[in-house]
Amino acid sequence: MLISLALAGSLLPAPQRAFSVVAKFPAAEATQGVAVDDRHFYAITNRRIGKYDRKTGAKRASFEDAPNGRLIHMNGGVVHRGKLYASHSNFPETPMVSSIEVFDTRTLRHERSIPLGIGRGSLVWAIPGPNGTWWACYGHYNGRGGEAGMTNDRTVLDVLDDRFRPTGGFGFPKELVARWDGMTASGAAWAAPGVLFTTGHHAPEVHVLRVPRAGGKLVLTEVISTPCEGQGIDYDPKTKTLWQIQRRERAVYVLSLNPPL
């Protein structure tokens, strides 16, 4: 059942549906993001990644940047064509600078960096979209890590071409920004064509956003309860499971929704 939107400036009603827990796996790196493929999941923290068997939770490989390395704040991740793409920024430093870091999923060897430059915000997540596009969320913050005059309502979802050049983008609705508690959209995954699951930073809820047919802002259609407090997610359309980190437990949860979207 969809939740009706409240009037502008007021809060949405409490979630009417909830994700249920299918499985849970401990993962020391589960503080920022998670990505999943057919056989493994990848827990991501600022400078480290752990590769785990998605059936048993056994650790298969790991990556850690050198103490004097260039990685500062990896965040969301996604597996695409055998590579793990990890969103990265210099958070909480300013001015904000972002990149996408690419890893071999077999070995977790770091292969290359895709610099995205300065001026849009801190890259929180980037996921592949239709027709070779990438959808990249640049976050802004009201407190630590924010830039003067750029509050979190300036968070933007850019559409990039297959060479990671911006071609357009969307803003986030104000009723959703009000739920971010001064932070930003911390995780995202495609739930269906044109429909995103997103999370904030603290609240135990998943936000369902629709790409609009007209206009420049995403449309919030539903808020769903989750046992995890925000942070990174990924979605497996084959098993219809949402994968989400639980930062305080250093764990990755596997979740289901009945009925699915």
Give a structural overview.
The chain is mostly beta strands. It has one domain (17-256): 6 Propeller (Neuraminidase), CATH 2.120.10.30. Helix content is 2%, strand content 48%. The protein contains 1 helix and 21 strands. It has one helix at residues 174-177; strands at 17-18, 20-26, 33-36, 40-44, 48-53, 59-64, 73-80, 83-89, 97-104, 110-118, 122-128, 134-139, 156-160, 166-171, 187-192, 195-199, 205-210, 219-225, 233-236, 241-246, 251-256. The chain has a 5-stranded mixed sheet with strand order 1-18-17-16-15, with no helix packed on it. A hairpin with a 2-residue loop joins strand 15 and strand 16 (195-199). It is globular. The N and C termini lie close together (10 Å).
Features:
Neuraminidase, 48% strand, 4-stranded antiparallel beta sheet, 21 strands, globular, mainly beta, 261 residues, single chain
**Which strand order does the major sheet show?**
1-18-17-16-15
pLDDT below 50 for ≥5 consecutive residues: which ranges?
Answer: 1-10
Structural class by secondary-structure content: mainly beta
Q: Kindly state the mean pLDDT as a whole number? A: 94
How large is the count of helical segments?
1
CATH superfamily: TolB, C-terminal domain
**What's the overall geometry?**
globular
Helix content: under 10%
According to DSSP, the number of beta strands is 21
Q: Helices and strands, in N-to-C order?
A: EEEEEEEEEEEEEEHEEEEEEE
State Rg.
17 Å
Query: What is the rounded distance between the termini?
Result: 10 Å
For this structure, the CATH topology is: Neuraminidase
